[in-house]
Design brief:
Blueprint lengths: L22 H8 L12 H18 L3 E4 L2 E4 L9 H9 L6 H8 L2 H13 L6 E5 L3 E5 L6 H14 L6 H12 L3 H4 L6 H9 L1 H24 L1 H5 L3
Helix pairs in contact: 1-2, 1-5, 2-4, 2-7, 2-10, 4-10, 6-7, 7-9, 7-10, 9-10
Length: about 230
């Protein structure tokens, strides 16, 4: 990684072009350090935001939509690698909120799957390491900078008020929800990005889920050490 008003209308279906990345791939690429291949955010943030990116991808493809407070699948099956998630949503006996789907879809395996998709395209490199001969970790340093450079150019132009396609707008909302936008563009005016993170339902679901995770962590810390939690100094 290198340095409006809510829209209630149904989004237009926007298929990614052959050379373009999916929203999950684009998010993960920008969330990963170019040099060491490590994530720029904690693992739980990465997993949660990637789940939101999957919902955003399905939404852009017209495969799902928000109806009232619940996510509903359409009859338009996605032609990308996220058909499994679409089928889960389609066949669930009870509809769920976006936040609930974020919590259900997030996971380490999905992060690795999207990383491996970037690896197969020659954008990042799979680097496996063993520690003490027992524990294996995996990093994904950048191999081809061109896709990331293109993404950064599009995002920066949109932040400066230029035209933005639906996929770039969704990506900006997710980056803001994950706390990555300020790291990528520390000098940018993020007013519009904050509005997007609040108004675009997949990004809002990420924000809500991260808030719940952090509250749970704070509560667990207080239960473990109530005296220190009340007097952190």
């Amino acid at each position: 990684m290198d340095a409006e008003e809510p829209n209630t209308e149904e989004p237009a279906v926007e298929e990614p072009k052959a050379e373009e990345l999916t929203i999950p791939q684009a998010f993960l690429l920008l969330a990963t350090n170019d040099q060491d291949g490590e994530a720029e955010v904690p693992a739980y943030v990465l997993r949660t935001a990637l789940a939101g990116a999957i919902l955003a991808e399905l939404d852009q493809l017209g495969a799902i939509g928000l109806q009232g407070k619940h996510v509903r699948a359409t009859d338009q099956a996605p032609q990308t690698g996220f058909q499994h998630q679409w089928e889960l949503i389609r066949h669930k006996s009870r509809p769920h909120t976006p936040k609930r789907w974020v919590s259900m879809l997030e996971g380490r395996a999905e992060v690795q799957r999207v990383y491996e998709g970037l690896t197969s395209r020659g954008i990042v490199e799979h680097v496996g390491e063993k520690h003490l001969g027992l524990f294996k970790s995996t990093r994904y340093p950048e191999k081809d900078h061109a896709p990331e450079a293109s993404l950064l150019t599009k995002v920066q132009a949109a932040l400066k008020g230029g035209p933005s396609d639906a996929r770039t707008t969704a990506l900006i909302a997710l980056l803001e929800a994950a706390g990555l936008l300020v790291k990528l563009f520390p000098a940018a005016d993020r007013t519009r990005a904050r509005e997007l993170a609040k108004d675009y339902w997949p990004a809002r679901a990420v924000t809500d889920e991260l808030r719940m995770i952090r509250l749970a962590e704070d509560e667990a810390a207080m239960l473990a050490d109530p005296v220190r939690a009340r007097h952190p100094g």
